[in-house]
Write a structure and sequence with these properties.
Helix 4 links the parallel strand 4 (97-102) and strand 5 (121-123). This protein has 2 domains: 4-298, 3-Layer(aba) Sandwich (Alkaline Phosphatase, subunit A), CATH 3.40.720; 309-423, Arylsulfatase, C-terminal domain. It has an 8-stranded mixed β-sheet, sandwiched between helices. It is an alpha/beta fold and 432 residues long. The protein contains 13 helices and 14 strands.
Length: 432
């Protein structure tokens, strides 16, 4: 019999949890989930923005290959096309009852588009306590169901604004600031507000996990928690630096041995999550996915880890094409357009930290960025062009080019137009 699956996602969290070393963050539910399951220290998204990242996560293919190169909501209007299969549709076709509670953000929010992704049941985006209530009632109703369920719970939190819903700033355990932001009262206030939103989301996840236990479903349900990309902070979200692409990934499945709080240091990409899920629950893994299953790693079987992960950005609020490769020791970013170093998204501009960082953000963009992640984990010193780095740079460039060719990256054929461009072009010729 197919097992139940609980897939928990959230916005803009990165690895900002207690179980990832953030001691001032109140996240006991997720910390406990990590202690009872497995946690991945080197998990990375494929794109540091919502829709492209989620498209890769739910299809097992990189965003440029499934047509989601920017945000799914208006006026940007990127969306997953019908010929690209979301994991909800895969599981529905395998016999699951598929339910979405809350966020999805890979296509339009109209009901027809959501059902086309493969969901049987859809519940709206609401603040975390309401989401938890809907999920709790779902689990109570399905405690003895003979049909397996795929329950995807998508939290808006901790997306800005940080006072959305019932969230209030939380500095009850202090406020520890990451190295990539200037330390001062503005940052303390901003991160306290972020911590409050994480606290609210974690409480909701605690409610859902308790309901799973109380209804006798915890042992035989595969639980995954993953976030889309890094924090909505300057030099994080919408960048290919580690604060933008590092993500939380926690799994638990007691009856299958995914337990005990094991930490894994292997490089994991979002495109690896779907093939892992499919192999774990016994559904054939299609051969055209870009990721590969790490289920053997969890089972203690022979496993060849990734030597690198690939990351990309094409559009967010503006056209900013870049591609990157990250190994365990180095990061290379190739920028395909001139401009300033950072296209800062609108929600990040809301941060009181942003004005303090403008001088370091508004700089000329280089063609190539190369960082030694061992000696320079903050990715500050660009080593591209240095004689002693020639071999490393050439190797990473070659691997990046090969990946772009193998995944048929449209950027290799020239600049990429957006849906907005096509709409404007129709206006131009509307009278002819």
């Amino acid at each position: 019999m197919l097992p139940n699956v609980l897939f928990l996602t959230c916005h803009d969290l990165g690895k900002h949890l207690g179980c990832y070393g953030q001691q001032s963050v109140h996240s006991p539910a997720l910390d406990t989930l990590a202690q009872e399951g497995a946690i991945f220290d080197q998990s990375y998204c494929t794109a540091p923005q919502c829709s492209p990242s989620r498209a890769a996560l739910h299809t097992g293919k990189h965003a440029h290959s499934v047509g989601v190169l920017g945000l799914a909501h208006a006026p940007f209007d990127w969306h997953l096309p019908p010929d690209q299969m979301h994991n909800a549709r895969r599981l529905r076709e395998a016999g699951y009852e598929t339910t979405l509670i809350g966020m999805q953000h890979v296509t339009r929010d109209d009901v027809g588009s959501l059902y086309a992704l493969g969901y049987d049941n859809i519940f709206p985006v609401e603040p975390a306590p309401n989401i938890a209530g809907s999920a709790k009632r779902f689990l109570e109703a399905h405690a003895h169901s003979k049909r397996p369920f795929y329950l995807e719970v998508g939290f808006f939190e901790p997306h800005r604004p940080y006072d959305w819903g019932e969230s209030e700033p939380d500095s009850s355990m202090g406020v520890n600031l990451p190295a990539f932001v200037p330390h001062g009262p503005e940052a303390i206030a901003d991160f306290a507000a972020l911590q409050g939103m994480i606290h609210t989301m974690d409480d909701a996840i605690g409610t859902i996990l308790t309901a799973l236990e109380e209804n006798g479903l915890a042992q035989d349900t595969l639980v995954l928690f993953v976030t889309d990309h890094g924090l909505a902070m300057p030099r994080a979200k919408c960048t290919l630096y580690d604060p933008g692409i590092g993500t939380s990934l926690i799994m638990r499945w007691p009856s299958q041995g995914v337990s005990g709080g094991i930490r894994y240091s292997e490089l994991i990409s979002h495109v690896d999550v779907l093939p892992t899920l499919l192999q774990a629950i016994g559904i054939p893994v299609p051969g055209n996915l870009h990721g590969r299953s790490f289920w053997p790693l969890l089972r203690g079987e022979p496993f060849e880890p990734n030597e690198e992960v690939f990351v990309e950005k094409t559009y967010h609020t503006a056209y900013e094409p870049m591609r990157g490769i990250r190994t365990s020791t180095h990061k290379l970013i190739l920028n395909f357009e001139v401009g300033l170093s950072f296209d800062v998204p609108g929600d990040v501009c809301q941060s009181p930290i942003y004005p303090l960082m403008i001088d370091q953000l508004v700089k000329e963009r280089k063609h190539v960025e190369l960082y030694d992640l061992v000696q320079d984990p903050g990715e500050i010193v660009n080593l591209s062009g240095r004689l002693e780095m020639t071999a490393v740079e050439s190797d990473l460039i070659e691997r990046l080019r090969r990946w772009m060719e193998l995944t048929d990256d449209p950027l290799l054929r020239g600049p990429i137009s957006s849906p907005f461009y096509e709409d404007s072009r129709r206006f131009l010729y509307a009278g002819n």
